[in-house]
Amino acid sequence: MDEFDIDRLADPDLDDPVLIEGLPGVGHVGKLAAEHVLEEFDTELVRRIHSEHFPPQVTVEEGRTQLASAEVYAVRDAECDLLVLTGDHQAGDGPGHYRLTETILDVAASFDVDRLYALGGIPTGELVDEPDVVGAATTDGLIESLEATGVEFRENEPAGGIVGVSGLLLGLGQRRGFEAACLMGETSGYLVDPKSARVVLETLETVVPFEIEYGSLSERAEEMEDVVKRIRQMEQGTTPSEEDLRYIG
Amino acid sequence: MDEFDIDRLADPDLDDPVLIEGLPGVGHVGKLAAEHVLEEFDTELVRRIHSEHFPPQVTVEEGRTQLASAEVYAVRDAECDLLVLTGDHQAGDGPGHYRLTETILDVAASFDVDRLYALGGIPTGELVDEPDVVGAATTDGLIESLEATGVEFRENEPAGGIVGVSGLLLGLGQRRGFEAACLMGETSGYLVDPKSARVVLETLETVVPFEIEYGSLSERAEEMEDVVKRIRQMEQGTTPSEEDLRYIG
Amino acid sequence: MDEFDIDRLADPDLDDPVLIEGLPGVGHVGKLAAEHVLEEFDTELVRRIHSEHFPPQVTVEEGRTQLASAEVYAVRDAECDLLVLTGDHQAGDGPGHYRLTETILDVAASFDVDRLYALGGIPTGELVDEPDVVGAATTDGLIESLEATGVEFRENEPAGGIVGVSGLLLGLGQRRGFEAACLMGETSGYLVDPKSARVVLETLETVVPFEIEYGSLSERAEEMEDVVKRIRQMEQGTTPSEEDLRYIG
Amino acid sequence: MDEFDIDRLADPDLDDPVLIEGLPGVGHVGKLAAEHVLEEFDTELVRRIHSEHFPPQVTVEEGRTQLASAEVYAVRDAECDLLVLTGDHQAGDGPGHYRLTETILDVAASFDVDRLYALGGIPTGELVDEPDVVGAATTDGLIESLEATGVEFRENEPAGGIVGVSGLLLGLGQRRGFEAACLMGETSGYLVDPKSARVVLETLETVVPFEIEYGSLSERAEEMEDVVKRIRQMEQGTTPSEEDLRYIG
After folding, report:
1. Mean pLDDT per segment of 10 residues, for chain A of length 249 residues?
2. A67 shares contact with chain B (CB less than 8 Å)
3. Which residues, including other chains, have CB under 8 Å from residue C160's CB and lie 6 or more apart?
4. Count of CB atoms within 10 A of residue C88's CB?
């Protein structure tokens, strides 16, 4: 295997596709969001990216093994053609992050992508009832149009910058002429957060644009809400009566 | 020395050999199993693989030093010709794991290997009285034939995938046209586990096939059983009388 | 992106420029000092150095992203032309430090730099009221001229040597014929230390030479003094009355 | 700078020189021993090896900086010509250890070295009054001649093998046709141990052969003995009277 090994599984004709990235990260917000988009549309797996910069492992699903990879899917039945990148891993080393991101940009370029959105979470350190979406972008024009949809651009946030593939898609993407934005849903940082993924997607729907349902994501969000409630009750040292739960839930 | 340096010590004519891999890992199940196969047959050391991806060290046996390596042995007096890979080390870095595995597959290809079995343990977190064998494989055909021998293929197990050379032998092996399976004996994950190695070998015997005795491995298993018994008694805060030990042991 | 990717933003004609380096390190002394020089003069950004050896991240300022980089600024309105190197990151791996430093020296050579000063802190482990400046240099001549301005050259200090880009600018710089010195302000090692940055700059002013004001740096130093005072009072278990604070502050 | 950068400072004509290596390690036994040899003879610095695999730092001595390096000295006034390798650093990464050792072997080969001795300590975990010397070697002949001088070759010792440059000088050296041995003085592993360095050197004197005095090393050993005594007294909760100390010391 070379440093990167790309399986070209399909080459559909896409019309000005927008790239959406959601890899594992804070609250798994980006990955949840990207996977929900894939659930809501018909998809075609177009590229599978393998790399020695991924962890040395295979995943196992019902006995069949799959070498560590990131996958790029094409979506053609949305209002706008999409390429969705997701997977189970970030790179395992610093230079690997740079090279993986360049490889993803190569794929994007081969499909004539102009604009890309990196999705993720921004940690707040505490449970968030109504998460905002915080943005970062490579151009003032993109910042303006995102601000118009309610995305917040805050001085010095995220404080530590944006780390990993999401950050580099903007940093390296800009150098190669892509217009790129990162949409980060507020999230505690302690729990998988489908509610945060939903607010990120609601913003994305407006700007790309496309339209999706949130049934399955809402169910997962409600399950997590329940987990959160129990945690809060444990913190307060009280166990709610069944009555209370019915009222709150 | 190059990145990989292979000593070609012998090139016997093997008839459709099956590659068996057992390197250090969970419960040392894979390594114990591979070493037991080597004890039970006449073997010929055919390759010694050195690499700067192995730890920078030599082992010492009765004063003589041996540079870190993995070894490939040929077995020709079994029902089916075998190549057995074992050694004291996994690679020390992520890309090293990928490249070491490709190097092993090169050796396998040079002996016209078609099928390979990676042996290892799957951690359960608690002591296991009658370990099952959990499997993973690269083809549905292989899964079916292994299921017929009692190997379990479970949804989402192992949960974290298969890490290291064992996992990559399947992941990279499949890309190069090998048929490959991983046989994992259940084991606590806390102790060296010859009993788990035995159940893995009993499965392997059926599918390769070959036949071996388990005398020496059983002895080691009984020694470990004794260790386990003492641990359990310590946990319960009781010390058995000598009488009891005689009866149980 | 290549291993290093340098944006050539301007190529002003500089007259025997002196390179001043201040990257993050002990007490952020070097970075504070370099940034203060940039505040005090008109500056022109001449090079931006990107590298896969920097952390895989972008910084975000008011929504706009900037790929991890080190920057080189030209200063032409000082008594002597200056090149000032600063940034938010050291390299993320050992060989990366060597190669980043060589890249910086390449830039220095392209502007015909002969002499360079690396700025930093030297940790004392305790709060320092009147920090000294400790030096290290590549030539006896430079040591003598620095000693004449009050810089201390101590046997075996800093005990662990000088680590990172500052150290390698001397070590690798000397091999390429640069004359180089490191000026290290004493600092506790626990706090960002503008006072230490000031004493380092006061020395640098004399030897380069140039002249600057310290207004803004003094303000930051006073803020830190206040922090230090509070820490000391907490350590002594006393909380000062408002009166006391007015008197001391 | 390249991956390795060697300053060729002198090329004296040496007669079948023996290479002696003593880099930092357990109890600093090897480094103390190599440095003592250098103190006892007239020496000529013949090679200084720089590498990006060394830590990114300079050492400072009385203000002058020295880029991280390993040094090779020639000794021509001993009974047998010697090359002595010492320095302040091991490599910072696994492949770096392999490549540094190959570079050292290149230097050895350029001086027609046939035999080399790696010096070090073997940790016992407790204070040792009369340390033995444990050996490891690449040939049975060398083992026999070392056993005749009292060196111990023990089954499975050192248990974890020999790590770092010392180990690889044997492992890689053997592959290139050098005859090599490692002499390891027993040492607690907790303290710098000049006494252990002395017993290693006494063995080395016999086998190389050469003759040296131990005045300065004995002084350092006595200083450490004193430290050890105090530690033991602290452990026993007693403080010796001055009288006692005079008697014991």
Report:
1. 96 97 97 97 98 97 96 96 97 97 98 98 92 97 96 91 97 98 96 96 96 93 87 73 40
2. yes
3. D57
4. 17
C195 is written with which tokens? Answer: 């006072």
Q: How many domains, in total, are found in chain B?
A: 1
Task: Say what angle helices C194-207 and C215-236 make with each other, to 10 degrees.
Answer: 140
The tens digit of pLDDT for each residue in B62-96 reads: 899 999 999 999 999 999 999 999 999 999 999 99
CB contact under 8 A, C162 and D57: yes
Residues in A touching C67 (Cβ below 8 Å): 168, 170-172, 174-175
Q: How far is CA B100 from CA A56, A118, B179, B195, C140, in A?
A: 11, 34, 19, 29, 50
pLDDT tens profile B9-62: 999 999 999 999 999 999 999 999 999 999 999 999 999 999 999 999 999 998
Contact C52 A95 (CB under 8 A): yes
Q: State the residue range of the domain holding D78.
A: 4-214
Q: Is residue C223 part of a domain?
A: no
* Residue in the structure block whose two tokens are 């390594």: B31
Closest Cα in chain B to A52 = B95
Of C54, C57, C93, the CB nearest to A162: C57
Q: Does A56 touch chain B (CB under 8 A)?
A: yes
Interchain CB contact of C18 with D (< 8 Å) = no
Q: CA C87 to CA C164: how far, in whole Å?
A: 14
Q: Following CA atoms C181, C186, C191, C193 in sequence, which dihedral angle do they give, to the nearest 10 degrees? A: -70
C240: its two tokens? 């000062």
The minimal CB distance from A52 to the residues B94, B138, B164 is found for B94
Q: In the predicted model, is pLDDT for residue B243 greater than 70?
A: no
Partners of residue B101 in chain A, C-beta under 8 Å: 56
pLDDT tens for B102-121 read: 999 999 999 999 999 999 99
Separation between Cα atoms, residue B82 and residue B18, nearest integer Å: 5
What are the Cα distances from residue C53, in Å, to A193, B123, B196, C20? 32, 37, 44, 22
Written as six digits, the tokens of A143 are 């910042």
Does any domain span residue A132?
A: yes
Which amino acid, residue D206?
A: T
How far is C58 from A182, CA to CA, in rounded Å?
A: 11
Write the CATH number for B139: 3.40.50.10900
Q: What is the ipTM of this complex?
A: 0.90
| Model confidence pTM above 0.90 | yes
Asked if residue D94 belongs to a domain, the reply is yes
**DSSP, residue by residue, A147-216:** HTTT-B--TT-STT-EESHHHHHHHHHHHTT-EEEEEEEEE-SSS--HHHHHHHHHHHHHHTT-----HH
Residue B142 to residues A60, A64, B51, B138, B207, Cα–Cα distance (Å): 14, 10, 32, 7, 10
CA–CA distances in Å: residue A155 to residues A147, A189, D230: 14, 20, 58
**Residue D227 is inside which H or E element, if any?**
helix D215-236
Q: Is C248 inside any structural domain?
A: no
